[in-house]
Amino acid sequence: MGAMEEELRKAEKITVLGEQEFWQQDREQLLEENRRLQRKLCIMTEDNKKLYTELQKAKEERGGEEEEISSLPKRLFPLEKNFSTALFISRRLKSEVAEEERKKREQLINSLQQRLCAEKQETERARALFHQCSGLETGEEKWRRKVSKLEELLTEKDKALRRAIKKRQARTRAYVDILAELTKTTSALKQSHLTCVALEGKLQTMLASGSFRKELSNTGNSFRQQLLENSRKEGEGLHKDLSYKDIKSRMEPVELCELWQSKAQNWNKEKMELEEEEKM
Q1: What does the record list as coiled-coil region(s) (predicted)?
Q2: Which is nearest to 213 in space by CA: 226, 223, 204?
Q3: What are the structural domain ranges in the chain?
């Protein structure tokens, strides 16, 4: 049985090598034709450049001779047309060579697959005959059980991997949502700070008394420092709260909602206090 399979492999290898050698020769011929066309294209390009140089010289030397100048583009037109034709042929040859190689490769793969299927069928028939003759059905059953166990183990690992991927995707979405909320909160804090600065400037312009202005300025400075400190602490607290591992390992979605609600209430409270002080 082993000798027969070895002979089949050798015969297949010889066939494949022969086909590869034939395709290699065909490919070399096509590449040689392509190189020849490219050389011809280069020659035509050089001729075109020479004619263009002659045209420039004629323009410089014979500025007033319009008829001679108009005749030069007529001479250039066939060359440009030939150049375009040669370029098109070269590109077409390249695409045809690539397409031909792809088709040959697909034909080779199909033929190899067909031969492989035929060899597998022949091997299965020989194996069945061998088992019938030697009575090794028990060993085959043992290997089948092992293969079945391995397939079950692979299925379980695949399921575990999918669960891990889904969990990671859920964590990523939650992290993105929390970052978006943090951005909104930061914008709100900046807006509150700008409002405080504007109110402070407005109060400074409206106040006429020097002592009261000084006292109010000190009070405003202390309040602004306190507000900045609170904003900084809130920002640091948010960054700590937004720790990816803490959010995923210690908090549930309900707890996160409660946290954001409490922080929103604190911000609303500070805003109301600021508005009351502005009225005073």
Answers
A1: 20-115
A2: 204
A3: 2-135, 164-279
Does the pTM of the predicted model rise above 0.85? no
CA distance 265 to 262: 5
3-state secondary structure of 259: helix
Is 228 within 8 Å of 237 (Cβ atoms)? no
Distance CA 262, CA 245 (A): 21
Mean pLDDT score, 128-137: 60
- State the pLDDT at residue 251: 46
Among 92-101, 176-185, 187-196, 263-272, the minimum mean pLDDT is found in 263-272
- Which is more confident, 78 or 151? 151
**Of 146, 231, 119, 161, which Cα lies nearest the Cα of 127?**
119
Sign, CA dihedral 22-28-32-38, equals positive
CA distance 68 to 55: 10
Q: Which residue type occupies 160?
A: A
